[in-house]
Specification:
The complex is a heterodimer of chains A (504) and B (340).
Chain A: E1 8-19, E2 22-33, E3 37-42, H1 48-55, E4 63-68, E5 71-73, H2 78-83, E6 86-89, H3 101-105, H4 107-112, H5 121-134, H6 151-164, E7 169-173, H7 181-196, E8 200-204, H8 208-214, E9 217-222, E10 225-231, H9 237-244, E11 268-277, E12 280-288, E13 292-297, H10 306-311, E14 317-322, E15 325-326, H11 332-337, E16 340-343, H12 347-351, H13 358-363, E17 371-372, E18 375-376, H14 378-392, H15 408-421, E19 426-430, H16 438-453, E20 457-461, H17 465-471, E21 474-479, E22 482-488, H18 494-502
Parallel strand pairs in A: 3-8, 3-9, 6-7, 7-8, 13-20, 13-21, 16-19, 19-20
Antiparallel strand pairs in A: 1-2, 1-4, 4-5, 9-10, 11-12, 11-14, 14-15, 17-18, 21-22
Helix pairs in contact in A: 5-6, 14-15, 15-16
Chain B: H1 2-9, H2 19-24, H3 26-44, H4 51-76, H5 84-100, H6 105-127, H7 134-153, E1 158-159, H8 168-179, E2 181-182, E3 186-187, H9 188-206, H10 208-218, H11 220-225, H12 230-255, E4 258-259, H13 268-278, H14 290-309, H15 314-339
Antiparallel strand pairs in B: 1-4, 2-3
Classes of the chains: A alpha/beta (504), B mainly alpha (340).
Chain lengths: 504, 340
């Protein structure tokens, strides 16, 4: 490898990124050559996104060095990274939907002109068409508004814009999660075309067979470290999965090793039959009293809509029943009444009432119990809130403190408290510890085990595989909207989960 | 550090009133601004600090105040209502026309209030199930409601008096509502405002409805996860707004006692929103208090009164009111950003 170093276009050495309480990147070492397709793979949380953000100039490394063409470089901003020829195409596209294809492709040219200069429409259109033609997209009308294109076409427009800006590196971050098979094929053609022209393509993906199909080299990341960089010769999906696994589980022993966790003989509380909802088809499973059931899968597996479908926030067909009583679809209030509680993933936007007090949040799903004739029972509310705060060991200054002023971990404890106050039979959690520091994570896990110990059936939907391994007694893996695997007890391990989530 | 914070959570005494918290409360800034304006006017004019003038200010702000109470609910729920000026006009006029047709007072009042209720209901339905932004829905209603009033009155002024057909005893009670004084000193309009404000304060801070209004405006998604019916809450907020705007409109006709569909309450929606915003309610929802709104209404009322006492020209008055709105809301936004 070393003797080829002179062909390295970008060399990253010893790059470390620390966030408060988290080591996101730990002495990264990887190099990208001109004219190669270089895939970066790794589990959720392995550090891929942080690394790409550093390349894009959106984040600055805590330590370490990035060399571009051999010269040490520090991208203080996204503009500087762009000036060096690095263009990142994110999943959330950075196009202006109300402007035309041509205007979007030519945007940077327009932005650098003086304000009063005349923009010849015909020239703009011609140049945009030329850029599109190079991608085999000559048929796309440059006058179409971007908002009317498909996601695949938008991605190609963004790549066309990158080429216009003489990009030397194009980073594609999870480019194909929204693409059909044919659209993916077209994208692959474009990627190969870019390689022909000497552009470096960094391809971040979960889809192993595509990575094997497309990449020249593959770098595997895990726990913020680069594990290895492999030449794509005689590699198999199994080989890649083996390189990706082995994440540190911390000090928490997997819960299934605890005999107290066995719920196989306990009665079934939640039963789901032939559930079909947006992104999900024909899902059936049962959850026992006291069981923690883990649900894993890739971002596009459909698992992210499961909680909303079960709780009645999304439309659904099929049967969802608690203690053999069918839940009404599309009626969250009825779901709560029938014993289901839901903690959504997006704590800041969709889960907590950030502008309201801790006490108000705790009882917000149980208003009927804490009011008489429509009048709130303030004393009872404070008593209940104080009890939940003590039970969950949430660190707050006052019960009247606004939820938004708490740390992520304490917010999540209060939101769990809100669920507990409803006396649920079933607790559905989506990414229960996303963005929470390690210490608070462990505390939340032990709270969840306590809740399960009281006979509550818990469904834990999570992208973090260690979280599933440590907490779940049984794990279901989703792929393409269906259950692709089930494992229990000692059978729950990273390799098995990844293989069922990723392998084709 | 963490331990200290934790132990304090269990000390209930700390949850009680604290002077520093009182000073940091959202209303504090508005209150001190009001105090400063009042002190200035006390020394700069002869007539400001007299019970006659203050009661006069109280009457002048009452109708604005009643409507701003309703707007507080709508803004906290995360919506806005631009149709209130038209509701004010049309409801007053319908009550007035019915009284002139010889109707007894209560049915005439009832129809006026029902008009407001219906407008609020339509506003609410359009802004929720109709999926229109409330800014657009109520902008449309602003025109439609005033248009309806113009059609019904043929653009002619409605004057409530016995010559036009009102029964004498009905007229007497009606006029007492708008022009009378309780115990010979307190204007009836102010009495109504105080009663409504007190009720609204209880509803907003002590009932499940008030709780739901805050939750829906704070985060509709989170409210839904808590099992709160977001659309129903917003519709009720609009209905409350409609009824209060109707009541203010009825009182206005009882005071004057004449109104015209093309003139009454024109542009009033902007005064109402301004007073509510100055009082600390947020256009993005989830924030606001009745006390703040009362203070906001008082600032605008005292400013208008003071500028008149100072002999400032009406043109300059208009400018000054606008300036106060910008400064008051600006200070609030700048200080929140500093806190964040």
């Amino acid at each position: 490898m070393k003797d080829m170093a002179n062909s390295d276009f970008i060399a990253i050495a010893g790059v470390t990124k620390r966030f408060p309480g988290v080591l996101a990147l730990d002495h990264i070492a990887v190099s990208f050559r001109s004219g190669e397709v270089h895939a970066v793979i790794g589990e959720n949380g392995a550090g891929k996104s942080t690394l790409m953000n550093i390349l894009a100039g959106d984040l600055q490394p805590t330590e370490g060095e990035i060399r571009v063409d051999g010269a040490p470089t520090r991208f203080a901003s996204a503009l500087e990274s762009r000036a060096a020829g690095i263009v990142v195409v994110y999943q959330e596209l950075a196009l202006c939907p109300t402007m035309t294809v041509a205007e979007n492709i030519m945007m940077s040219d327009l932005a650098t002109r003086s304000v009063v200069s005349f923009v010849p429409r015909a020239t703009m259109r011609a140049e945009a068409r030329a850029a599109l033609a190079r991608l085999g997209m000559g048929a796309l009308d440059p006058d179409t508004k971007v908002g009317r294109l498909s996601v695949a076409e938008m991605q190609l427009v963004e790549i066309a814009r990158a080429i216009r800006q003489r990009a030397r590196v194009v980073v594609l971050d999870e480019p194909n999660s929204a693409l059909s098979r044919r659209e993916s094929e077209r994208l692959f053609d474009v990627v190969r075309q870019l390689r022909e022209e000497g552009v470096t393509v960094i391809y971040v993906s979960h889809h192993l067979h595509e990575v094997l199909h497309l990449a020249d080299r593959i770098t595997v990341m895990r726990d913020g470290r680069t594990i290895e960089t492999l030449d794509n010769e005689n590699l198999s999906e199994d080989r890649l999965i083996r390189a990706m696994v082995g994440r540190d589980l911390g000090n928490t022993a997997p819960w299934h090793r605890n005999p107290a966790a066995s719920s196989e003989d306990a009665p079934i509380v939640l039963s789901i039959e032939n559930l079909t909802a947006p992104g999900l088809s024909d899902i059936s499973f049962d959850v026992h009293a006291g069981e923690i059931l883990g649900i894993g899968g890739l971002p596009d597996s459909g698992k992210d809509g499961l909680g909303e479908a079960l709780f009645g926030l999304h439309e659904r067909t099929g049967r969802v029943a608690i203690d053999d009583k069918d839940l009404r679809p599309a009626d969250p209030l009825a779901s709560i009444r029938d014993g289901m509680s839901f903690v959504p993933a997006d704590r800041r936007g969709a889960s907590g009432l950030l502008s309201m007090s801790v006490a108000d949040n705790v009882i917000s799903a149980s208003l009927a119990r804490f009011s008489v004739g429509g009048m709130l029972r303030r004393a009872a509310i404070r008593r209940e809130a104080r009890g939940q705060v003590a039970r969950l060991d949430a660190r707050i200054a006052r019960l009247g403190q606004k939820l938004g002023t708490l740390s992520g971990g304490n917010q999540q404890k209060i939101i769990l408290g809100r669920s507990l106050v409803t006396n649920p039979r079933v607790l559905i959690l989506h990414e229960p510890t996303r963005g929470i520091d390690v210490g608070a994570k462990a505390e939340i896990y032990s709270i969840l085990r306590g809740i399960a110990g009281e006979g509550v059936a818990i469904v834990m939907i999570s992208s973090e595989i260690p979280e599933l391994i440590v907490n779940a007694e049984r794990v279901l893996v989703l792929r393409a909207g269906r259950i692709s695997g089930e494992m229990r007890g000692e059978g729950i391990n990273e390799e098995a989960i990844l293989a069922r989530a990723m392998a084709s | 550090m963490a331990d200290a914070v934790r132990s304090s959570a269990r000390a209930p005494a700390r949850d009680q009133f604290q002077l520093s918290r009182l000073l940091r409360a959202r209303e504090a800034g508005v209150f001190f601004a009001l105090l400063a304006i009042c002190l200035f006017l006390t020394f700069a004019t002869d007539g400001f600090l007299t019970s006659v003038n203050l009661l006069n200010v109280g009457r002048q702000i009452s109708l604005l105040g009643i409507m701003s109470i309703g707007m507080t609910f709508v803004l906290i729920s995360g919506e806005v209502d631009l149709s209130v000026g038209s509701t004010y006009a049309s409801s007053g006029l319908s009550t007035g026309m019915l009284i002139c047709l010889g109707w007894p007072l209560l049915p005439a009042l009832g129809v006026g209030l029902l008009t407001g209720l219906a407008i609020g209901l339509i506003n609410g339905l359009l802004s929720t199930y109709g999926r229109l932004p409330s800014l657009i829905a109520t902008l449309g209603m602003l025109s439609m409601v005033r248009g309806t009033a113009l059609i019904l009155t043929s653009g002619q002024p409605v004057t409530v008096n016995t010559r036009n057909g009102a029964l004498p005893d009905v007229l007497a009670t009606f006029e007492y509502m708008g022009q009378g004084y309780l115990f010979g000193t307190v204007p009836m309009q102010l009495v109504f405002f105080i009663i409504i404000a007190a009720l609204a304060w209880v509803v907003l801070s002590a009932t499940t409805f008030g709780f739901r209004v805050f939750a829906v405006g704070g985060s509709a998604k989170a409210a839904r996860v808590s099992g709160i019916h977001v659309n129903a809450v917003k519709i009720w907020a609009f209905i409350l707004m409609g009824v209060l705007a109707a009541f203010a409109g009825i009182l206005s006709l009882a005071f004057l006692p004449s109104g015209q569909a093309g003139r009454t309450g024109l542009g009033l929606e902007l005064d109402v929103i301004a007073a509510t915003i100055v009082g600390g309610a947020s256009l993005s929802g989830g924030e606001g208090t009745i006390l703040g709104t009362i203070l906001g209404v008082l600032i605008i009322g005292v400013m208008r009164n003071g500028l008149v006492l100072l002999g400032v020209s009406p043109f300059v008055q208009e400018f000054m009111i606008g300036l106060v709105i910008v400064i008051a809301v600006g200070i609030d936004k700048w200080s929140t950003r500093r806190r964040a």
